[in-house]
Amino acid sequence: MTDTTLTKPPTTAPDEPDPFDRDDLPAPPGATGALLRSLLSAHRARVAVAALVLLVKEAAVQAGPLLVAYAIDRGVPAFRAGDHGPVVAVALGYLLCAALSGLLQYAFVRGAARVNQDVLLDLRGRIFRHAQLLSVDFHERYTSGRLISRSTTDVESLRELLSEGLQELIGVVLSFLSITLVLLWLDLGIGAVATASFVPLYLLVQLYRRRAGRVYGERSTAIAGVIVKFAETMNGIRPVRAFRREKTNDTEFSALNHRHERSNGDALLEMARYVVGSRLVANTAVAGMCLWGAYRVAEGSLELGVLAAAVLYMRRLYDPIDRLGMFLNSYESAAASLAKIAGLLAQEPGVPETTAPHELPHRTGAPGREVVFDNVRFAYRTGGEVLPTFDLKIPAGQTVAVVGATGAGKSTLAKLLARFYDPTEGRVLLDGTDLRDLTTPDLRRGIVMVTQEAFLFSGTVAENIAIGRPDATRAEIEEAAKAIGAHDFIKDLPDGYDTDVRKRGGRISAGQRQLVAFARALLANPAVLILDEATSSLDVPGERAVQQAMDTVLKGRTAVVIAHRLSTVEVADRVLVMESGRIVEDGPPSTLVTGDGHYAGLHRAWRDSLVG
């Protein structure tokens, strides 16, 4: 008989706050910038070409006022003297610059759009792949609605930045640099006035960034809350309707929706403050330059064409200010979203892939392998200790039923064996090999779990069975279904094995879904099979059908059966009774049932419930 004793008192939850209690996961320092750089690194050449195209386009645009100045100061006097050449040259030059800027703008938008879509494709793929690699513990604490928000709403914020914001930023920076240099070249005094006006604009931009960063962080969190509530309600629509939760859910959703509305309103208000302030600075600077320039023209120290060009340039200098606001708007929204995505991608899998994989020893004959829990202790990250120091040996080919009250540690034992979690201390061995030393494909081929709720994916019955072995032929799929006893009901479906079971297998009954899950497990041909309360949700006919299937699928394999109904124990060679993470009884069911221990009491209570 295998038994364990408590060597440590249960631990209490840690004092530090759980990051999963937040609406987002904090990104490590520098993670956001590193993520953006990694996304763009594969497209450096195309980004450089796009920047060069935009630079030439900006040069073509900024040549216009210089042509106007030349026409006023040189072309008009020449025209009066009968020489039309300068005016015609200016007109043709202006048209050429306009045509060139249009063509280059088209080329830039087309190239940038391709980079934009490739970056977003890469980012969505990263989120999806990374989320699949994260541990069960992560997914139990981080809702699917928040994952959906990261891969949709937050990625969309980045799309707006890449498709519109970056062009505005590059355009504004090039405009500022080129116009400032041209104004200083045209007239040092005018250039100095223009440069001085940048100071209040810089302070205005810094204020906007500081306030908008907070607002957009709140907005991203608010929309995630809306998505989480919506997804949770739709996934639980049956209990919602059964317990009349509609009004309560509507009230809660309305509060979340209003929170999102307020955060959107705050973002628009910050944008409005910035636009009003920037236009006030711009108009004041242009008005001041016009007055001072007119005075200088009147006294003869400034040419009229230079003043006209300077005013045009100043208007062009301040026109992009609104566009800069649009960039900052996109940037702050994208920065908040990218920080949340970076926080998600920074999460490390709780069960990391081994860097030095071992191979399982070759076996002949029956597929079963020996399972050993060697000095195992386990505690959840945010809770108390579930399994104290724990030792257990299951010989190859033995079927072990694990029974006990809720919270006794049965499912935790199963999750450790399936390596959904790693032990806090100790080792779980499969034929002497630590599960942590096996590659994920080898582990999943060797150990398969069938849960209480047999999850079927949208698709055909055959496709769901083939999940156990994707390269299986149709004949092998049907053979597995026949062995389990599922073939008869499958062939009676509208399209037989090609029938689409729809969302979560809702087209067939719970018992039929469980039979499909057993066929999937049989086709996978694992060495160890874990049945986690696989019959607890079934009616009596469904339970009998599944128990008959269990006789087939368990043959020759090592099996751990987490039993809620004691009728399931009948297939077991050995029973473990667990209490508070300890094995308090261990032996053949026929021996334990005749004694006066825990299992005998559970069995009497179960038998009396059947009689009643």
Automatic annotation (TrEMBL):
Residues 371-605 form the ABC transporter domain. It is found in: Cell membrane. This is ABC transporter. It is a multi-pass membrane protein. Keywords: ATP-binding, Cell membrane, Membrane, Nucleotide-binding, Transmembrane, Transmembrane helix, Transport. The lineage of its organism: Bacteria, Bacillati, Actinomycetota, Actinomycetes, Kitasatosporales. Residues 48-333 form the ABC transmembrane type-1 domain. Residues 1-27 are annotated as: Disordered. The keyword ATP-binding applies. Pfam families: ABC_membrane, ABC_tran. It comes from Streptomyces cinereoruber. Coiled coil: none annotated.
